[in-house]
């Protein structure tokens, strides 16, 4: 058998062959920061597990020194040199063919190689920072998903776990970090050699190295684990908040998982050029600056929350992902969905006043929105090539993943769920697991049919909308796949349904397993309402109206459509303030989604919104704000003649709370109030409320003359920046130039991002074009360009033309860091006509690549959904009357 092997059979395979597996890597790396190059040597102790003449491992973008390759079997100690060395570029593999079948058992493979410190924010790359006014390079690794192979030849798949002994040779004055602590340091003139302690067994994508100049702050957990946050020199103060969160979180997770943090130290580092938000490398977590640094004076409340969520997310991975690792990328959601869910669990415990589980509904909403596209994908998705992995780091793996975990936890109960997770972590520690392994543990602990229940959510894409109709003695349910394009898919789910009648004290939960079902609820109603009859009660329409709310607390990943009568009951419950904030959000979000899918009219959505006039809860208002902006946007395309009046109504809706909150922070006010203030003002500016716009501009000019003014703190600054850009035109550029000056002068990454995300709100297409070109200039880091792509309606044609004209450069620069999806999503999706969708489809026909194919299809689907929605709004004959009534009810 082994004699018949040939190089050809290893080509075009999704996974590496399993006849040899690495046990330990001794890895030496010597980066040259000024030449942007590195040299390396790997000694890989491996087990030959099956007869083979070949060793097949991954390598990409490396110059492998062929003469250096040797393999020595431990027993015979005979050194073999490969006869055949083939680097297959498309598959990123290195195939070593020997002249004989390798003896089973242990051996050592030696390889030397060199490479470039690239500019693509993946593999072993360089990031640029300033020190004493001079530009300097640092060397950083980013290996997830499949880029360790760009730094050293390795078995670059999560299931090939091994230990790592890393040695770095670097300039003596620099800080050099890796996953484990340094055990030996030898200084040799200008260079030093650092040897790091051997790691526990781990996957290659979690290996990390950082070399540069840093300051740090340090603290210890109660167990004596040393935690450090490394920042640019002079900025270590900004690491204190993250440090504090990290120390508390390690302790919390130790309790939750009943397993201590597995490594002797944890370092967290802010990297100036970073493709994603953060990366959970074992013991050396790397972050984009704005995801780690927080400054009491210069950062907004939403940044603070983002830092906390990012840190708690990455630390959850130290258990979920690093200690227990997914067997293959198909199970990526086990990493990302769980870390996302855990991050809220931790944030809720550290910052109970943030109502973070209510805010979690933002994530659930994103998951529901993406998963309602025909071009969505199942949570468990087949991966056939490394270049398909990046695009599954999406809202399905993260938000849907986290949401179905929340759904399951709420079905099984928090205690049983925690017990099961702890036992899962213990069972699979230092090993790999698949989705079904987790279900098996949960099933054992709970006695519930977890595998069947959950497979219906992870193996098929989409989710149901449950239609609920009142029948004489109860209710009738029908589940049907919810798709925003209005079609009905044929998915079917096991849905953990919950409902309450007239009060949260009267609840029921059960599994809906079929397409149709009926439920007698007379007993429930009896307990909720004395001997009252549902029919009578609900038709009375008096002060104590009867209501039923499904999906209590919105812990389920599905939507609900009520018949008219049940919907009227809920409207009463909203107005009479009988419902939790989460449920008020759910009703509104479901209704909005049904409207986009043309299953409900815009007039009825507006009329539902009217029930929220007295809404006081910040989290609910947050959803009203986003939905209002989307409505304002679509009606400008659909019924421009009604747009102004619709906006008047939306403004009434938002203005009451905006006035209550005002522009100025109040002593002792809540975190949520501060965040909402910024969002509300930004929305009023975007929708076009003159008073807010004028005040925003007034405050901006005061701020411009006095950067320390208390009139424009970071939380409200974005509203002002957008308002200023709305005043800018080609003949009146001063606001734009002032913002560019702020951008150039600041060294805060949050501020830079804030400016970038405001610039393209300008209504003048010529300025929009200038802004877009600015994004491509050397003044904007590649990681930040994507923030500038949210272009005004008036600028969207220009942006599309610009994308086409610069496509070659843009795809070359951003494709490899997977940021290209943002370019496509932001610029393609806002359109709302079938013709545009066709034009775009045609442009991309010859330009699509696997790394963004799905994003592109999703964006085009969105354009078609918008087009259909526009038509349906035009056909909504009651709209005009409804709008007039709402806008003038107690209008302004
Ligand atoms: N493992 C990811 C980082 C990552 C993303 C690597 C995409 C490779 C490709 C990390 O744990 C993560 O999820 N980061 C998030 C932040 C988090 C708070 C949701 C990110 O980068 O957005
Ligand atoms: Zn993650």
TrEMBL record:
Major subcellular location class: cytoplasm
Cofactor annotation comment: Binds 1 zinc ion per subunit.
Gene Ontology CC entries for this record: cytoplasm; extracellular space; membrane
Domain Aminopeptidase N-like N-terminal per the UniProt entry, residue ranges: 22-206
EC number of the protein: 3.4.11.-
One MF annotation (Gene Ontology) recorded for this entry: metalloaminopeptidase activity
Classification via CDD domains: M1_APN-Q_like
Positions of the Peptidase M1 membrane alanine aminopeptidase domain: 241-457
Catalytic residue list: 314 (proton acceptor)
SUPFAM superfamilies assigned: Leukotriene A4 hydrolase N-terminal domain, Metalloproteases ('zincins'), catalytic domain
Family per similarity comment: Belongs to the peptidase M1 family.
Protein name: Aminopeptidase
Organism: Phoenix dactylifera (Date palm)
